[in-house]
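hey team, just a heads up i'm posting the complex here instead of the shared drive bc the drive is being weird again. everything in one block, sequence lines first with there labels, then the predicted structure for the whole assembly after. its four chains so it's a bit long, scroll down
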Amino acid sequence: MTETGAAPAPLGRRERKKAATRQAIADAALDLFLERGYDDVSIREIADAADVSTTTLFKHFSGKEALVFDRQDEMKAHQLAVVRERPRGQSIPVALREHALRYRQINPDDEPEAAAFLDLVGRTPALLDYQHAAWLENTTALARIIAEDSGLPADDPACTALAHFALEAPRAARHHQDRAEAITRAFDLLEQGWQSITSGTHKP
Amino acid sequence: MTETGAAPAPLGRRERKKAATRQAIADAALDLFLERGYDDVSIREIADAADVSTTTLFKHFSGKEALVFDRQDEMKAHQLAVVRERPRGQSIPVALREHALRYRQINPDDEPEAAAFLDLVGRTPALLDYQHAAWLENTTALARIIAEDSGLPADDPACTALAHFALEAPRAARHHQDRAEAITRAFDLLEQGWQSITSGTHKP
DNA sequence: AAAATAAGTGCAACCGATGCACTTTTGAAA
DNA sequence: TTTCAAAAGTGCATCGGTTGCACTTATTTT
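-- predicted structure starts here --
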């Protein structure tokens, strides 16, 4: 009753509690994962650590992988923003390339949390797959942006192809020692092809 | 006692029985899958139908998906062969494109079994993912062929990128009504890019 | 105050998969 | 032939992820 303030947003007590529970679960999960590795932590353990039942856990998260990528939505939005707000004159493939390269460049001394997180994902195949699948969900949105930008029809298959390949580029570079260079070369291929398609060749 | 012949190949009784068991399992699995759908058939049912234990089943197949793609090895080999034995003068991307297009063109009236199989795979996400992963395992081999053919170093990232993207092309075309056209356009992008890379830039 | 809503609980169960100890078959050596 | 070791197969128990169901709370609405 005496609690007056603390209601800046239109969030009822209920929704706040829900959010808190969700956060508690995600935090507990990430702690355990970082400490012992993804595969060596069970759902039951996480639920115990967060002091909820496994049933409750699965009402908040669609699966085990989703516990790790709690904020994947933000990353996806960020990726699209990078393309939309790219410097004038910069091509879309280049913007995507820069984004891909930047993502891999986090300094362990600078951002230890982010580094540990990336490491966790990087050494867990299940997480790599999940992340990549989520990544690809941006294909359609990205294709639309490309189409708008180049004046092609919104459903032009070439736009989808470029979007898909660009999102796939980091994976294509996976097995090379120098990943950054491999990514660059993959994007070179795409950019050259894209130039040919959008400029010349159409009508001889 | 009266069984005299029937040992033309260097296959002992043992290996024949093993192969028979494996085949029985795969057949039972495919029958059930086609009849009721992949997700609605359990491993235990398949094992029962083939009259073996689940333990035995898993000694023959690495997982549930592997029951469906019993002959994936042949398909992979075939794919590489298509590239190696392509008509003189035909580029590698074109050979891959033709192969990709041909794979999708099976006439239900002509090859009902193959059609039913493709349909089963096509409507089961788990199987699509598994198939695609197996598909991508050809990336390295394909990259090597591309490198040899174009005189680039065997580990040139551009070759890996082209191989990866080409294998990815069918997926990029997934959401278009006219899949064949979408695949063609995706390969156009790759081919143009590849030409630019291999013709120009080498040594000015 | 009562009814409607939604969070959370507890439990049992299913499914894919694995490990272990055990029996049977089979190929070949003794 | 007898014997022996490897390999195939079995049975069972168990694990971890996931879901369904019936049930108790807490909060919101009427």
